[in-house]
Amino acid sequence: MGTIAVLGAGKIGEALLSGLISAGKSAEELLFTERHPERAAELTERYGIASVGVTEAAKRAEVLVVAVKPQDIEPLLAELAPLVGPGSLVVSLCAGLPTTLYERRLPDAVPVVRAMPNTPMLVGEAMSAVSPGRYATAEHVRTVEDMLRSVGKVVEVPEAQQDAVTALSGSGPAYFFYLVEAMIDAGILLGLPRAVAEQLIVQSAVGAAKMLAQGSEHPVLLREAVTSPAGTTINAIRELERHGVRAALLAAIEAARDRSVELGRAHEA
Ligand SMILES: NC(=O)C1=CN([C@@H]2O[C@H](COP(=O)(O)OP(=O)(O)OC[C@H]3O[C@@H](n4cnc5c(N)ncnc54)[C@H](O)[C@@H]3O)[C@@H](O)[C@H]2O)C=CC1
Ligand SMILES: O=C(O)[C@@H]1CCC=N1
């Protein structure tokens, strides 16, 4: 895999660097660029990883991982264009941005892989999906998959599905955090101390996630096993249905997908 440079070390850039360090990658094989010097100093202090300019990153790294906001992509691609060639490997983590954007802005035949991870990279539990661009070979995809597999699980999807992936698993952790936050509030409503409510809900989330990850039973069966006849859970389910929570989730994730498409369209020219 060689040296990996993260271009733009914000939340997802840090999650990747931190996850790779935890997975045993040495700080010497990692680099990052960051336009805010205080942020760069903070990360070097925390992980011992060198902050460099984009020229040095392109010279020293085998893999260049783009992790700036989609709105900040154009100046970065302009900087990168004279520094990369067919022997480079560019990985885009940016929501909505198609590989064709990179292929148009960078010189001919630069291999690009679009990948969508999520923040659980920080704890080695990411879900990532990868899609090769026009010039990326199976070997390039394997390199990116190996990198992302060291911080979680990976699937390959056709690039046309990446906006849906972004809405589902890229943003997905936020939906679970939101749900947990709301459930803790319910504990407060029922008069529980906040610390107790937090422990009850977080551990219930961990337990439920472990059961789901085992995959031996479908989520519907797991939910039915908690839902006793004339019991407490069915009363709660009735309220969730009455308030349209399922429809709200479908609409929310569809809206996230639409925003991903829109972020890509902003760079169509
Ligand atoms: N936050 C998340 O959970 C996920 C984010 N992503 C994608 O990752 C990208 C970054 O997202 P976040 O980390 O949340 O944003 P962020 O705003 O926390 O990080 C972006 C970083 O890039 C830096 N930056 C911008 N332009 C630069 C340049 N030309 N050179 C060097 N540094 C530059 C900024 O100073 C900032 O620290 C986005 O495209 C997003 O779609 C993908 C998956 C999950
Ligand atoms: O909210 C966003 O745009 C990014 C992409 C996926 C997760 N966070």
TrEMBL record:
SUPFAM superfamilies assigned: 6-phosphogluconate dehydrogenase C-terminal domain-like (SSF48179), NAD(P)-binding Rossmann-fold domains (SSF51735)
Subcellular location: Cytoplasm
Catalytic activity: L-proline + NAD(+) = (S)-1-pyrroline-5-carboxylate + NADH + 2 H(+); L-proline + NADP(+) = (S)-1-pyrroline-5-carboxylate + NADPH + 2 H(+)
EC number(s) reported in the record: 1.5.1.2
Keywords (A to Z) from UniProt: Amino-acid biosynthesis, Cytoplasm, NADP, Oxidoreductase, Proline biosynthesis
Main EC class the enzyme belongs to: oxidoreductase
GO biological process, one term: L-proline biosynthetic process
Keyword Mitochondrion found: no
Major location category of this protein: cytoplasm
GO cellular component, one term: cytoplasm
Residues annotated as domain Pyrroline-5-carboxylate reductase dimerisation: 159-263
Pathway per the UniProt entry: Amino-acid biosynthesis; L-proline biosynthesis; L-proline from L-glutamate 5-semialdehyde: step 1/1
Function noted in UniProt: Catalyzes the reduction of 1-pyrroline-5-carboxylate (PCA) to L-proline.
NCBIfam families in the record: proC
PANTHER family named in the record: PYRROLINE-5-CARBOXYLATE REDUCTASE, PYRROLINE-5-CARBOXYLATE REDUCTASE 3
Name of the featured protein: Pyrroline-5-carboxylate reductase
Biological source species: Saccharomonospora amisosensis
Organism placement in taxonomy: Bacteria, Bacillati, Actinomycetota, Actinomycetes, Pseudonocardiales
Gene: proC
